[in-house]
Amino acid sequence: MAETLKPLVFYDFPSKKPGVNAWNPNTWKTRYSLNYKGIPYKTIWVEYPDVASTLKAAGIAPHPTTRKPDGSPMYTLPVIVDPNTGTSVSDSLLIADYLDKTYPDKPILIPAGTRALHEAFLDALTPNFYPTMRFSMLKICEILNPRSEAYIREARKNDVLKMLNAASIEDVYPKGDEAEVEWKKFEEGMKNVAKWMDSNDRFVMGDTISFADFVLGGFLQANKKMWGEQSKEWKDIASWDGGRWGRLLEDLQKYDRDD
Amino acid sequence: MAETLKPLVFYDFPSKKPGVNAWNPNTWKTRYSLNYKGIPYKTIWVEYPDVASTLKAAGIAPHPTTRKPDGSPMYTLPVIVDPNTGTSVSDSLLIADYLDKTYPDKPILIPAGTRALHEAFLDALTPNFYPTMRFSMLKICEILNPRSEAYIREARKNDVLKMLNAASIEDVYPKGDEAEVEWKKFEEGMKNVAKWMDSNDRFVMGDTISFADFVLGGFLQANKKMWGEQSKEWKDIASWDGGRWGRLLEDLQKYDRDD
């Protein structure tokens, strides 16, 4: 099958920032997955306000479980369409399942027996990644094209900003002493995650790369792109926990293709 | 070595409740671990106010990381002492590590590569188990001998009750409509955990038993002992998620020794 594999279609979010292509932590999970398995694909870049209409037009179903606040179906990225099987899949973890099942002779993303542990890993990360939110909402706006930026600013008013009782993304961006406190929380969150691992292990599963590394890698890629590789902030993140986060992105560099 | 293995010493908390021996969710993790590996051991039952003095007298170190609110060292159970190697270990996960490393020819608790995923699994469980706290604080008092009960009631005043701004364990025990709401939260928490797994899988890692099952099993055992096997509450828990929690304890029954 490998010889004749037609390229998959992979939907991702574009960037206006010079030198930055893929930047979204969730689509990076799938991008890493595809690159690691060595599966050919072509990226279709979609602006946020066009996601639902683009996927609908391509006959792709909404996310199987994620819903809008009003309970209606929601279209999210990443999505892949596999012309070799006629299948489309939403959600990075479900895409990993699909790729392992359909292409079991290529490197495995979720080693046998670890599916539920991977789910728990994703759940356990959430509170540790949460402190970045107040920073990243604004930094992402610097990456988005104007139509996506407007769309995201409106969407945040109806979820995170409503929850925080704030008017704008700028209002919640930590400033002055608060910025130091919030940055420290971010560092503490990453320290919690680092503690799960042996400091000598390069990957979550030790010497074996797995989808869990692509979840961490996606989050780190997003930060690297948001802050900029030469920024004080990224250098800080990359240095935390004995430099393990910078080293992880280096170790994953050969799966970095993002065109 | 198996032929000449001297029994390990295993420290656990006693019960005054008729028909209940081991009941603590944390010591059950180790009890299951020892039973699963088939390692001989003898239980020493210790009342809460005697834990520190008993372990100190036996030359055992406090927990390596857990601290009292004032920052001083803390003695916790489970603890094992292995006379075959002269080693003592606190903390159920570290005991699992020790047992796998020292007795690698016996069934493995933490399969290769899954150590960090197990840590994440433990972290991910915490918020899902949290809704039981307001129930279990009182139900545990029905199991404890009077000296332990007095000790635990005093300890809770300085942590959970202070946090909840409440005077007594009785005050926070959910009553009437609130009991229904809180019980529902418990059910929702267990549903979150069940969602990580394939409904056909008996164990967290599928067909393979691992330490993760003993963490769930310990929590379920504690509930079964607190509520009583014939109680409405235990029957309810055992029935949730297609009966998977009752079935798990049945599947683990051969590792149930608790003398």
UniProtKB/TrEMBL annotation, chains A, B:
Annotated Pfam families: GST_C_7 (PF22041), GST_N_2 (PF13409)
Domain named GST N-terminal: residues: 14-107
InterPro entries noted in UniProt: Glutathione-S-Trfase_C_sf (IPR036282), Glutathione_S-Trfase_N (IPR004045), GST_UstS-like_C (IPR054416), Thioredoxin-like_sf (IPR036249)
Gene Ontology biological-process annotations: glutathione metabolic process; L-phenylalanine catabolic process
Molecular function (Gene Ontology), one example: glutathione transferase activity
Residue stretches in coiled coil: none
The protein's name in its UniProt record: GST N-terminal domain-containing protein
Organism: Dendrothele bispora (strain CBS 962.96)
